[in-house]
Every structure is written in C-alpha cells, then in structure tokens.
Amino acid sequence: MALMITDECINCDVCEPACPNQAISMGEEFYRIDPARCTECVGHFDEPQCVSLCPVACIPVDPAHVENRQTLLQKYQRLTDTAS
C-alpha cells in the first residue's frame, strides 16, 4: 500500500528528507506522496519513516493504492535497480 498525506498536514518539513525513495514532495497546499515511488520503506526500514516522524499523524494508508508486502518489495527492487 502506498501512503498518503491528508490535508491535516502542517508542512513541518520532517517527512520529505526522511523518505528513502524521494516519494514525498511539496504539493500545492501541503506535502504529497507519489504512490509510484512509495514502498512504505519496505527494503529500507522496518516501518515507514514519514509515519514514525509525523507530529500530527496525517499519513494513513492510501485506499486507492493497496499493495501487499511482496508488491512493495518488488517496487523497491525496481526503484533501486534503476537508480544504479
């Protein structure tokens, strides 16, 4: 599952640098997560770094992008292979 940032975001700038996949960027009003790059930190960490650091808990699972752990691992492998 990719994650999403809700409109409760306070633009604290904590999540963007913590994302190992560069999936987080500033949107028009608040940060957003690119579901094509979000692996929920699978392959990097045991838990999503943005979720663990967010002070307002505004990063839930995106119901429009449901993926299992295997799919997230495949995405991680695809992203890291193209980065090499």
UniProtKB/TrEMBL annotation:
At the top level, the lineage of the source is Bacteria
Answer whether the UniProt record assigns the keyword Chaperone to this protein. Answer: no
| Listed name of the protein | YfhL family 4Fe-4S dicluster ferredoxin
Q: Name one Pfam family in it.
A: Fer4_7
Keyword annotations for this protein, in alphabetical order, are: 4Fe-4S, Iron, Iron-sulfur, Metal-binding
Name all 4Fe-4S ferredoxin-type domain ranges.
1-29
The organism encoding this protein is Pelomonas cellulosilytica
Q: Which InterPro entries match?
A: 4Fe4S_Fe-S-bd, 4Fe4S_Fe_S_CS, PSI_iron-sulfur_center, YfhL-like
